[in-house]
Specification:
The complex is a heterodimer of chains A (about 110) and B (about 120).
Chain A: E1 9-13, E2 18-23, E3 32-38, E4 45-50, E5 55-56, E6 61-64, E7 70-75, E8 84-91, E9 105-110
Parallel strand pairs in A: 1-9
Antiparallel strand pairs in A: 2-7, 3-4, 3-8, 5-6, 6-7, 8-9
Chain B: E1 5-7, E2 10-13, E3 19-24, E4 31-38, E5 42-50, E6 53-56, E7 65-71, E8 74-79, E9 88-95, E10 105-106, E11 110-114
Parallel strand pairs in B: 2-11
Antiparallel strand pairs in B: 1-3, 3-8, 4-5, 4-9, 5-6, 7-8, 9-10, 9-11
Classes of the chains: A mainly beta (about 110), B mainly beta (about 120).
């Protein structure tokens, strides 16, 4: 499976934007970039996904580099409820590999 | 929809006992996944079902682990006999299918402690 590299942890202040980076230099043409997050004591939850173009939804934005070797998850206005581990995952479907979770980025939000 | 339902939420058992974890996927979803999360290994896929058929069980750690999906609305993960190293949080997830853009919806997990 293509691998992703994320910082172990990041810290931000409440109500400020947060940019969570992810490197995936070995991404293949069929891989979608998915982001999930896991709040304390909960199961992972879907955040956003994209292929080539930047994507927006009610939770976040995803900025994808032109060469697709990196991407950035953007939380426009972080709240304390956004404190979680954020996982950047490459997924080409088929289900055989499921989602391959790395260690993710532990996002800490300061009030 | 109630989302993915897992039971029990917590299970404490003694080494050597049989453990059965249960999952009810979201109605209409064709794919079901079992994951395990530990501090050492993080989240890892155990097995994947598509239309109730096991497609890939290469992540199942040993023969002590088995999973079934007798119908579209129910799946079980059984450990027999259980060992302390099986202690982990087990998640069930379902998705509409297994396409590249399909979202997986995770249940709240079952925290298993084997003494």
């Amino acid at each position: 499976d293509a691998k992703t590299t994320q910082p172990n942890s990041m810290e931000s202040n409440e109500e400020e934007p947060v940019h969570l980076p992810c490197n995936h230099s070995t991404i293949s043409g069929t891989d979608y970039i998915h982001w999930y997050r896991q709040l304390p004591s909960q199961g992972p939850e879907y955040v956003i996904h994209g292929l080539t173009s930047n994507v927006n939804n009610r939770m976040a934005s995803l900025a994808i580099a032109e060469d697709r070797k990196s991407s950035t998850l953007i939380l426009h206005r972080a709240t304390l409820r956004d404190a979680a581990v954020y996982y950047c995952i490459l997924y080409s479907g088929g289900g055989a590999d499921g989602l391959t979770f790395g260690k993710g980025t532990h996002l800490i939000i300061q009030p | 929809d109630a989302g993915v339902i897992q039971s029990p939420r917590h299970e404490v058992t003694e080494m050597g006992q049989e453990v059965t974890l249960r999952c009810k996927p979201i109605s209409g979803h064709n794919s079901l996944f079992w994951y395990r999360q530990t501090m050492m290994r993080g989240l890892e896929l155990l097995i994947y079902f598509n239309n109730n058929v096991p497609i890939d069980d290469s992540g199942m750690p040993e023969d002590r682990f088995s999973a079934k999906m007798p119908n579209a609305s129910f799946s079980t993960l059984k450990i027999q006999p259980s060992e302390p190293r099986d202690s982990a949080v087990y998640f069930c997830a379902s998705s509409p299918s297994s396409g590249r853009t399909d979202t997986q919806y995770f249940g709240p997990g079952t925290r298993l402690t084997v003494l």
